[in-house]
Amino acid sequence: MGQVPPAPPTLPGAGMFPNMFPLPTGQPFGGLPMMPIQAMTQQATRHARRVYVGGLSPTANEQSVATFFSQVMAAVGGNTAGPGDAVVNVYINHEKKFAFVEMRSVEEASNAMSLDGIIFEGAPVKVRRPSDYNPSLAATLGPSQPSSNLNLAAVGLTPGASGGLEGPDRIFVGGLPYYFTESQVRELLESFGALKGFDLVKDRETGNSKGYAFCVYQDLSVTDIACAALNGIKMGDKTLTVRRANQGTMQPKPEQENVLLHAQQQIAFQRIMLQPGVMATTVVCLTQVVTEDELRDDEEYEDIMEDMRQEGGKFGALTNVVIPRPSPNGEPVPGLGKVFLKYLDTDGSSKARIGMNGRKFGGNEVVAVFYPEDKFEQGDYGA
Fold first, then answer.
1. Which of 141, 153, 218, 327 could disulfide-link to 158, CB 3.0 to 4.6 Å?
2. pTM to 2 decimals?
3. Which PANTHER family match (predicted)?
4. Is 185 within 8 Å of 106 (Cβ atoms)?
């Protein structure tokens, strides 16, 4: 009486979840507290009730993960243990962006395996068995495969929703503005090469875009280049999330850097074209026309200026030509590598954009887009 009893010893294998099942102290036996039958059952089945969830966003927390997966399990009809939440506990490793989500039953954990690739906080997550999962032992505790009656369509995981695109090189493209058409998204992605497969996920009832897509490139070596170049780009009021659908983002190899820079340049101009309601302006911006080395030499620079005046003048009255040059001290120069043609009216600029876009110049295909007049007048050539 009056003495504080010793704390119960930590169970083997429970080091990562010390407070998951606080066990009440029972009658002492051999100096150890006895475990209630329910706690013993929970401990024995835990490996089969836990689910690994990888690729979480930095803002994810235990509550948001628990609430999300409980709601999703209810939506697909995966709650087989009765009413209430399927998730009983969550542990998150914020540094490595993964979580262990513990379900209340073995069968519900198996049903959760069907949720692999589900979109959580704007990006797909991996749903797997944890490393301590014992298949042979789990088979004696309950179903080891998801139910075939789950309504996966309720959470956007309809079979074939990703257009049959599977494998490690499948790319998830999230954060797409809803007004982007299928052809516009394709055009953006094809900056890096031909697509082997593509699917813009749409609402089954309305046919409207859900704001994300999946794709696979014919040349798999550009997969990581596309992810690195597109991820984080702002499109309208949205920011793109682009990465391998089943893996974390991988960095391009050194030998891929030139391809990456080239593609990023094209994307920058497509961003202007893909804005809703783009109107013709009196300024046309050309890329892939000149190189930095050509612009360093004074005589060569003047020749290029004259060529641009002659070529651009074929489409209408030019009022100005601007070609940013490299800085002598090596500092970054906004708009370097671009050519800006300012016309008297939009009739001339529209003809120039159509006439010069896609033309070959020095072996490169010219990209011509309208450029905001206010930015041009302010000397802002880096948009």
1. 153
2. 0.39
3. RNA-BINDING PROTEIN
4. no
